């Protein structure tokens, strides 16, 4: 042990929530008992996108990837016996962030807490939702207003709360390079701060208080040196922007404050035990360097590419952090990379490139304008396509996937269906019934809420004006309003937004020169179209339900386009009815469905039934996503032509198999085209 006082460890979190508020509360209390030092709440997709569990789009999604919170009663149960005044809670919530924070505040008040002492973070970064995660609701302008109002409210009323966690994590998942990740996150921060300061709600002498509450949530990938340098570059650029653009003199207020989730994109379904060392290496990138160390870390579990982790899997990830913090000597030293010429040169290069890209975005009118024009999305789709092409070509090696594929049988995955946690399908019916009971009894003792219609009218009136929306939102919470009612009221005023997909403008990432795999598939596509007399083969790529992870669907769409298909892709958040209607209207030859949220068991068979009822049972349906083996077998038994999961990384090969299924469905002979 050195004479230097040991640094405090970072906050240790596990991103968690599932099924019901009661089940998630038990999970949180168990995790805290195991030494977790902060909570990180995962909400289900209906909650994230502003729908009640009984909405048509919520079907199959309730409690799947997080906890459903439909009203104040759910929030009470979620944090029962957890003293919020003593807790540091992170809530991964964006479009409905104001609503969830309002419920959190009211529950804290009911516990007797002093809300000025509440600590935690609401993610509240809507820009990256348009680009990658897909849980946006409202158009960019109104969404920025909600974020602005929430920041101003918390700075004035909940001063220890971080009202926004500008989130570059999902940008990397969507294909962002380190330069893009930094530049897009910083451009978002500029848009948010400009809006806050232009709102007139914060005096000039309190600008530093606002900047001090802006936090970031980043991704740490497996390229250790690059990721560590990325964090140092992030800090330097943030210091420069806040000092030069906003005049913040206090270095403490300019500090780059960030939490991290290490990269889930790089976790593999093949040889998933290798994910453990990936997670450790990625964690080191954001902990070894004291001058760029994360303030909070949450690690995925080794089996997240297979499905929903079990409590034991999450415990393993927590223990990884605890061993590093408490058994190693990491926290006993100053920054161990200071003075490294290699590190300094890489950081300087990143800073220079990032500032140039930030400048380009500013010339376009800022982050929101670059979202609406489609520039940011198309850049991410292109970067992701280029990465996938490098993997398929073997230029970027992934152990167990495109190299060193030979493996001994793994005891961890001997029972694949038992290696993940499943959500009881009956949960959804119970949650829907509980919601109905809440609506029927919210006016009665012991609740005695005033009728919510008046609170919702006040909310709409406030939305039509220019005042801060937080007080009207708090009144809705106390009136027993539901998540869907609050969101619908704002939808009526603000409208909804369908973000650009980036598919049509993405450049070709894989060449189709003679002798290449793509050239062979292109010939297959052309010959099949000729035999069918259809001009071109048409593929519908559909995203049913609320799953907004569209990266895989976009890559399939781009590669199919490059292979000669006419691609119909309308983006995320469609009902099975809408997908079937589009398939019939466009006279497609195949329907491809992409679902990563676990709702495939309900939504894919629904599409099959609707196609049969429409007399189009001959259109083959394929499915892709995080689909456990037993579910894949059930889907094939129901009539799905093929099921693809993350282990099927060869996109060109997938497109070729789609052509095979089209030929089979149309009773054409198998077609082998020499590569």
Automatic annotation (TrEMBL):
Pfam families: B12-binding, MM_CoA_mutase. It comes from the Bacteria. InterPro entries: Acid_CoA_mut_C, Cbl-dep_enz_cat, Cobalamin-bd, Cobalamin-bd_sf, MeMalonylCoA_mutase_a/b_cat, MMCoA_mutase_a_cat. SUPFAM superfamilies: Cobalamin (vitamin B12)-binding domain, Cobalamin (vitamin B12)-dependent enzymes. Residues 536-665 form the B12-binding domain. Its EC number is 5.4.99.2. Its cofactor is adenosylcob(III)alamin. It is an enzyme of class 5 (isomerase). Keywords: Cobalamin, Cobalt, Isomerase, Metal-binding. One of its GO terms (molecular function) is metal ion binding. Heterodimer of an alpha and a beta chain. Belongs to the methylmalonyl-CoA mutase family. This is Methylmalonyl-CoA mutase. It comes from Streptomyces hundungensis. The gene is scpA_1.
């Amino acid at each position: 042990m050195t004479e230097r006082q040991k640094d405090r460890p970072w906050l240790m979190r596990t991103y968690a929530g599932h099924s019901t508020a009661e089940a998630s509360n038990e999970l949180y209390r168990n995790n805290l008992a195991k030494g977790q030092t902060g909570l990180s709440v995962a909400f289900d997709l209906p909650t994230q996108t502003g729908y009640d569990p009984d909405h048509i789009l919520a079907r199959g999604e309730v409690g799947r990837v997080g906890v459903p919170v439909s009203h104040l009663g759910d929030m009470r149960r979620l944090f029962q016996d957890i003293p919020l005044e003593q807790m540091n809670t992170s809530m991964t919530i964006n479009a409905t962030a104001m609503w969830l924070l309002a419920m959190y505040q009211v529950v804290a008040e009911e516990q007797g807490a002093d809300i000025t002492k509440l600590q935690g973070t609401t993610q509240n970064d809507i820009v990256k939702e348009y680009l990658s995660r897909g849980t946006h609701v409202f158009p960019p302008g109104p969404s920025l207003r909600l974020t602005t109002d929430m920041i101003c409210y918390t700075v004035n009323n909940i001063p220890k709360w971080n009202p926004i966690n500008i989130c570059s994590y999902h940008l990397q998942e969507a294909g962002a390079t380190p330069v893009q990740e930094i530049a897009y996150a910083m451009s978002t921060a500029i848009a948010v701060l400009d809006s806050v300061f232009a709102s007139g709600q914060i005096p000039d002498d309190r600008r530093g208080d606002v900047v001090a509450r802006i936090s970031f949530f980043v991704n740490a990938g497996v390229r250790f040196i690059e990721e560590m340098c990325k964090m140092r570059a992030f800090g330097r650029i943030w210091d420069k922007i806040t000092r030069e653009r906003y005049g913040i003199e206090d270095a403490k207020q300019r500090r780059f404050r960030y939490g991290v989730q290490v990269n889930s994109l790089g976790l593999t379904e093949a040889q998933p035990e290798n994910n453990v060392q990936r997670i450790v290496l990625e964690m080191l990138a954001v902990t070894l360097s004291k001058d760029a160390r994360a303030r909070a870390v949450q690690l995925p579990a080794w089996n997240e590419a297979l499905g929903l982790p079990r409590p034991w899997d999450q415990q393993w990830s927590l223990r990884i952090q605890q061993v590093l913090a408490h058994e190693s000597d990491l926290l006993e030293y100053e920054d161990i990379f200071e003075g490294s010429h290699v590190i300094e040169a890489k950081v300087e290069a990143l800073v220079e490139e990032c500032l140039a890209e930030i400048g380009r975005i500013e010339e376009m009118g800022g982050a929101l304008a670059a979202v609406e024009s489609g520039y940011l999305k198309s850049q991410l789709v292109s970067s992701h396509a280029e990465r996938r092409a490098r993997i398929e070509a073997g230029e970027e090696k992934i152990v167990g996937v495109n190299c060193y594929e030979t493996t001994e049988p793994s005891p961890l995955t001997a029972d694949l269906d038992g290696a993940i946690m499943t959500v009881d399908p009956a949960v959804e019916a119970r949650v829907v019934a509980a919601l109905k009971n809440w609506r029927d009894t919210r006016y009665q003792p012991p609740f005695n809420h005033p009728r919510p219609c008046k609170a919702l009218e006040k909310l709409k009136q406030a939305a039509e004006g220019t005042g801060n929306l937080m007080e009207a939102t708090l009144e809705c919470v106390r009136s027993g309003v539901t998540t869907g009612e609050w969101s619908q009221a704002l939808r009526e005023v603000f409208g909804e937004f369908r973000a650009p997909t980036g598919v049509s403008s993405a450049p070709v990432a894989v060449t189709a020169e003679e002798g290449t795999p793509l050239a062979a598939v292109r010939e297959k596509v052309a010959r099949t179209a000729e035999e069918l007399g259809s001009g071109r083969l048409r593929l519908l790529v559909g995203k049913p339900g609320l799953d907004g992870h569209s990266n895989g669907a976009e890559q399939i769409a781009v590669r199919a386009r490059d292979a000669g298909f006419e691609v119909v892709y309308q983006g995320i958040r469609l009902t099975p009815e809408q997908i079937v209607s589009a398939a019939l209207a466009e006279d497609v030859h195949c329907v491809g469905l992409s679902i990563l949220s676990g709702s495939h068991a309900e939504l894919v068979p629904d599409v099959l039934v609707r196609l049969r009822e429409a007399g189009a049972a001959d259109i083959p349906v394929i499915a892709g996503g995080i689909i456990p083996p037993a579910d894949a077998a059930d889907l094939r038994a129901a009539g799905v032509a093929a099921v693809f999961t993350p282990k099927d990384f060869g996109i060109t090969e997938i497109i070729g198999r789609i052509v095979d299924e089209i030929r089979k469905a149309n009773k054409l002979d198998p077609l082998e085209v020499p590569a």
